[in-house]
Amino acid sequence: MNKGLFSLFLLMMPALASAQSVSQVWSPDNGDGTYTNPVLFADYSDPDVCAVGEDFYLTASSFNCIPGLPILHSKDLVNWQLVGHALQQLEPREVFDQPQHGKGVWAPAIRHHNGEFYIYWGDPDYGIFMVKSNDPTGKWKKPVCVIEGKGMIDPCPLWDDDGRCYLVNGWAASRAGFNSVLTVRELSTDGTQVVGLPRIVFDGGQENHTTEGPKFYKRDGWYWILCPAGGVEMGWQLAMRSRSPYGPYEWKRVMWQGKTDINGPHQGAWVHVDGQHADGKADGEDWFLHFNDRGAYGRVVYLQPIDWSTGWPMMGRHGEPYATYRKPATTSTTIVNPQESDEMNGTLGLQWQWHANYQQTFGMPTADGCYRLYTADLPVGFKSLWDVPNLLLQKPTAPRFMATAKVRLATKEEGQYGGIVMMGRDYSALVVVRQGHHFVLQRHTCMGADEGQMESQTTLTTLKATHRDTIPYSPATSIDLYLRMTVSDGICRYSYSLDGKRFHEAGEPFTMRQGKWIGAKFGFVAECSARKGNRGWLDVDWMRIAKN
């Protein structure tokens, strides 16, 4: 990165902001009219999609991560670009200013109605919320609590032909004391408040246990609810239909693992495409985007065709999911993928999230084209990074990749440290720590962080400082270096370099593990213990993702 060009960059920012990214490590488009699943090899769990003209917009669960409610855009359901977030802060702040693993935003639904985009989601501890905007890539309004209470999850609205609005939702046994039940109630026509009492429209019972994640549709006079059952890892997809939004509903299993290696094809979104084949023949098609659990990588997104020849929306090949198939009949030929690398010039890329509500002391962009993370005070009784809110992380987007970062750690006192981390229920970080007037390279690892286990620290080598301030008050001692993680099928290896050319292995390989309801995430950590004076900081010049 040439910092001397930073002023020119600022002038170019509007154009660059709309630039499209093509991944070096995972692209589902085969370039021959076919695609290979998953179309998003990243943890966009519980995906939902709406179609507006030739544009498709996807959102997904974000739980405690902020910004939340990611917005992805596509022209063909195969090539996706991350274009924004609908939620900048979780409420109540006094709760979500600290990590609340597995809480927050569960299973959202995105819809377009009367020129506006709506997203509904369930917070199992506080109720059902809604946020809306007339521009999905722009600013969204402040969230509204539509229904207050515990246990309600996975809501989805349906605006009927007469303008009336209905909402279906599931229930979390961990809060409500029951699950496998779907309820429908009427909302006001603007979708902001309840006007009717809930009614149970389906109980999965023994045959379809763990019924959840419903999505509400209407087609040819039928009300349809599509939902998964059977659990994330070994479940299946249900379709149910009725002539009334309140049922009774008849049901059918429309997708399952079968003889494939795609386990538990789970909840997602039915999308209609008014497209055109390459031969010019007009052809309306229906498709289904769903997630598949990939362990440490989280819940990645698959695309399946829908066949209506039986009168039911059979997905994939007679109910078994495809690994490869032809692309939807749209006119788009552009290959684009969510951003992975980040030059940190002027602002953070959209792929980055914090583990709790953002606070200014976590970090800010600098005028010379870095992102500065300030070393945060570790909490009293610190055991592991599981309790730390200022982790700056992104999702892995491929089973194999190499992430390299150029950083400078500037310290004001001993014990301040910074580096890279692969975070989950187990985690491991490669960091440099100030000790006296030099630095030590360490691996910080915790197995069972979610269970309150203590982090272990292993010193690998001693490194000389790159620079020492001569100012009399609060001088900084700094080190410049390159940190790298190489990921191959769930195994993460660390290395470091002083010149960006010769990299040295740094400790033992680490087996990635998912977080609570999310996949493992990687990025940056900057902390300090027993701070007496000013904070130090980690200046991130760039992080680049490449093939390993």
Please explain how this structure is put together:
It is a single chain. The radius of gyration is 24 Å and the shape is globular. It starts with 5 loop residues before the first helix and ends with a strand. The strands form 8 sheets. Strands 24, 25, 28, 33, 34, 35, 36, 37 and 39 form a 9-stranded antiparallel sheet that branches. Strands 23, 26, 27, 29, 30, 31, 32 and 38 form an 8-stranded mixed sheet that branches. A 4-stranded antiparallel sheet has the order 2-3-4-5, with no helix packed on it. Strand 4 and strand 5 form a beta hairpin. The protein is mainly beta and 548 residues long. It has 3 helices and 39 strands.
Features:
single chain; 548 residues; 4% helix; disordered N terminus; 39 strands; nine-stranded antiparallel beta sheet; globular; mainly beta
Please give the share of residues in helix: under 10%
The low-pLDDT segments are 1-18, 277-282
User: Could you say which overall geometry the principal axes of the C-alpha atoms support?
Assistant: globular
How much beta, percentage-wise?
Answer: over 45%
